[in-house]
């Protein structure tokens, strides 16, 4: 019994790390620029497809090289998208709604672009590291453990970036008070672009990490988008800390509910938990007033 | 002066609506032999009511709802089940379908009262997503949704001894034209009434409106109820027109399509959403020969329209329509009383 619980806990933590990677980019861009990005799932799937292309084009491609190519490419892509699609709308009165709509159009565009380019069939990436490993008597897949390690290092990296670098501090300043940030000379538009680009790169990382297990297909981003959305709302939109906590809470909860009640229940449970939390705390667990 | 301006604005929207009605009344004269075009026109009418109901929530009341197709499906299933299994006359079924959808709207509205922006979108979208497994589950089968097979053999609309058949589309077209324009007119009157003014004031300067005693809860629930009623009712008509209801109507493609209608027509710019429904449906049909490139090009068009013409077609037709004295006051209040961190570009201040 105890052993089973420990196993469920381990798989829950692995799941939580996956959710954390998935949603931290979304919360970042929302926190900084109050943009809800509907194309996030498409960026996620495009990151995975880009890696698939690299694996297909060059034999002997390894994951470090793939990451080294995909992350900058997606970062620049995000930068370009923000400049072209989001920045021009910010001058309008109802920019928030317009941005949601335009990112929705972008999602339609990107999803169907990948449908045209890669076809409707599911594709997969090779695992990061094949095989299983033994940790203190528990057998876990190496891929999951590597995902967990990468997830944790990405999150520590984000934490250091937001806390220690000038750009990260600028992002926090803009998130706290856009007008105040402008008064002290922060070029908010530039900060928005970088936050968006960073979130695109994070989505792509998540895509690559999850593709070996969850496969990729043109519409696959939507499921991820909705899950990330719930994680982010549960933790508090715009709170990176809240998102990471809620990712692990929901991951562990999902593992336990799935183990105890059966596999069709976690989703119902997610929605119920989310409604419950939002009824008590309308801005999520760690959300603060806007 | 103020009344004069308001009267002028009133005329502009109803004139647009009347021109639309006149054109649509005449269209069958040219297309009555073409079943395909008549079918598309009927679908345009159905979607236009969904789009206008959505616009009522999103554009006028500023409630970021994604649950409209949930209401549509509830109306369609409710009326389908009542007429098919319980033998209730179809016109009554349609109205009950609308009322059940309105009830669902109010229930969904309740948890949304304390939420804002993206959170409301999430809760309403969750409602939309949860309906699919619910309809397909054993519970759904128990109340007669037909589960994954869908609800088959929904009886067509019948008034007295006259029954509408799927083969003859002209009567369907005219009855739906009537229903659609009655719905538009009702929603239009509501947006122009004191209730509509309350919606707009709550959207534009929430805190100020509340401090003047505008009841946030009451009006938000009312918006949910009204919008869900019209959406559910047209969903019921859809069920009786096609004779089949399945969870396909909750598909993401239709959802996105109607959202695109709002954007192209112009959000909060009545009757832009209705015009958008016609443009988008026909554009989508015109792009059909492109096969798999269709939605790809469609997405590009949407992004281009939003970036270049953020107020949609209505913004092009009536560029200054939005900035009446009331709106200018609202904007002033909104700027003064609310903090919107990232609204303007930084260049103004630096």
Please characterize this protein's 3D structure.
The complex is a heterodimer of chains A (290) and B (350). Chain A is built from eleven helices and two strands; from the N terminus they run H-H-H-H-E-E-H-H-H-H-H-H-H. By secondary structure, chain A is mostly helical. In chain A, helix 2 (40-57) packs across helix 9, helix 9 packs across helix 10 (240-261) and helix 10 (240-261) crosses helix 11 (265-280). In chain B, the strands form two sheets. A two-stranded antiparallel sheet of chain B has the order 1-4. Chain B has a two-stranded antiparallel ribbon with strand order 2-3. The longest helix of chain B is centred in the N-terminal third of the chain and has 30 residues, at 2-31. Chain B is globular, with a radius of gyration of 21 Å. Classes of the chains: A mainly alpha (290), B mainly alpha (350). At the A-B interface, helix 4, helix 7, helix 8, helix 9 and helix 11 of A face helix 5, helix 11 and helix 13 of B.
């Amino acid at each position: 019994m105890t052993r089973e619980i420990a196993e469920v806990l381990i798989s829950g933590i692995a799941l939580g790390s996956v959710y954390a990677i998935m949603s931290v980019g979304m919360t970042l861009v929302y926190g900084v620029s109050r943009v809800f990005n509907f194309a996030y799932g498409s960026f996620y799937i495009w990151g995975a497809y880009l890696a698939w292309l690299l694996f297909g084009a060059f034999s002997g491609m390894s994951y470090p090289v793939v990451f080294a190519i995909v992350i900058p490419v997606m970062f620049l892509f995000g930068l370009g998208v923000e400049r072209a699609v989001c920045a021009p709308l910010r001058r309008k009165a109802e920019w928030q709604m317009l941005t949601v709509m335009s990112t929705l159009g972008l999602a339609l565009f990107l999803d169907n672009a990948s449908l045209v380019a890669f076809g409707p069939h599911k594709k997969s990436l090779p695992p990061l590291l094949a095989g299983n490993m033994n940790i203190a008597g528990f057998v876990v897949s190496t891929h999951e453990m590597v995902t967990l390690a990468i997830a944790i290092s990405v999150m520590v990296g984000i934490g250091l970036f937001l806390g220690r670098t000038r750009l990260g501090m600028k992002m926090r300043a803009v998130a706290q008070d856009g007008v105040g940030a402008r008064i002290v000379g922060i070029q908010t538009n530039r900060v928005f672009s970088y936050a968006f680009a960073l979130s695109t790169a994070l989505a792509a990382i998540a895509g690559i990490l999850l593709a070996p297990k969850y496969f990729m297909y043109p519409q696959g981003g939507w499921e991820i988008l909705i899950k990330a959305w719930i994680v982010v709302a549960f933790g508090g939109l715009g709170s990176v800390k809240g998102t990471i906590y809620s990712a692990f809470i929901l991951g562990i909860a999902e593992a336990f509910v799935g183990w105890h009640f059966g596999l069709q229940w976690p989703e119902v449970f997610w929605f119920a938990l989310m409604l419950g939390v939002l009824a008590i705390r309308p801005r999520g667990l760690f959300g603060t007033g806007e | 002066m103020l009344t004069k301006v308001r009267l002028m604005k009133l005329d502009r929207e109803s004139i647009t609506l009347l021109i639309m009605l006149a054109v649509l009344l005449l269209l069958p004269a040219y297309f009555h032999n073409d079943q395909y075009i008549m079918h598309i026109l009927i679908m345009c009418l159905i979607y236009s009511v969904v789009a206008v109901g959505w616009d009522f929530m999103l554009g006028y009341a500023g409630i970021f709802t994604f649950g409209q197709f949930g209401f549509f499906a509830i109306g369609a299933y409710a009326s389908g089940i009542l007429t098919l299994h319980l033998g209730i006359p179809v016109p009554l079924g349609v109205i009950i379908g609308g009322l059940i959808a309105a009830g669902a709207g109010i229930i969904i509205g309740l948890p949304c009262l304390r939420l804002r922006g993206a959170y409301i979108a999430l809760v309403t979208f969750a409602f939309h997503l949860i309906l699919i497994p619910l309809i397909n589950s054993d519970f759904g089968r128990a109340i007669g949704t037909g589960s994954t097979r869908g609800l088959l053999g929904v009886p067509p609309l019948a008034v007295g001894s006259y029954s509408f058949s799927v083969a003859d589309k002209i009567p369907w077209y005219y009855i739906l034209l009537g229903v659609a324009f009655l719905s538009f007119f009702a929603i239009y009157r509501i947006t122009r009434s004191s209730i509509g003014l309350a919606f707009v004031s709550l959207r534009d300067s929430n805190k100020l409106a509340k401090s003047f005693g505008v009841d946030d809860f009451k009006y938000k629930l009312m918006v949910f109820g009204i919008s869900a009623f019209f959406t559910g009712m047209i969903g019921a008509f859809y069920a009786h027109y096609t004779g089949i209801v399945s969870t396909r109507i909750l598909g993401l493609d239709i959802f996105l399509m109607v959202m695109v209608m709002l954007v192209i027509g112009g959000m909060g710019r009545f009757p832009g959403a209705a015009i958008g429904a016609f443009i988008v449906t026909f554009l989508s049909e015109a792009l059909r020969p492109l096969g798999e490139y269709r939605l790809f090009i469609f997405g590009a068009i949407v992004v281009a329209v939003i970036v270049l013409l953020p107020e949609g077609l209505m913004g092009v037709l009536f560029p200054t329509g939005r900035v009446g004295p009331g709106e200018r006051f609202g904007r002033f209040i909104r700027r003064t009383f609310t903090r919107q961190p990232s609204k303007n570009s930084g260049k103004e201040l630096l």
